[in-house]
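Appendix C reproduces, verbatim, an entry submitted by the partner laboratory led by Prof. M.T., so that reviewers can inspect both the input and the predicted structure.
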Amino acid sequence: MPPIHDYVIANQNGANTRSDLNNAFSAIASQNSSASEPSTTYAYMFWADTANDLLKQRNAANSAWISVLTLSTGSITTGGLDLTADQSWTGSQRAALIVDNDGSFDMNGGNNFKCTPSGNFTLTFTNITDGQSGFILLVNSGGHTISAHANSKVDANLLTTVTAAGTYLISYLSDGTNAYLTNSAIYT
């Protein structure tokens, strides 16, 4: 097993300095491989945590380890979560509605949108992401004409329905190329 090293080269004779450097390089080459974390840490430092089968990286504040991947499989993790495993959420998973009144919805901005148009518009999605779904709360108080961009797939009645003045909930699901939409009836 490679030695743990503090990355500080002591002021010493030539042979000891060489040994110290070789130990430092060995620790670097092995990603600080050990069953226990290095005693001296640095921001962005890697550690191959052999006890937990994880490659970890020190955060920018040098205050915690972030799991990057599983050593034995190479599976990427996010914040300690293995992305190949099923996830159970214990807290709420939500964000505020993104206000977008021009009818062009950027999927990188969020999942759920609120649109209060001031004129006619075309339902358009940008940065289309495979598997993303969400809602658009459409407040069409002016009865503005709504059309669909080629990447917005709608049924025969959706555009006629949501063009009438009123409030609607439009849901969508993306396949990475198109967004497929369905709508509610008018809310009272």
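Residues 123 and 148 are 5 Å apart (CA to CA). Additional entries are available on request from the coordinating office.
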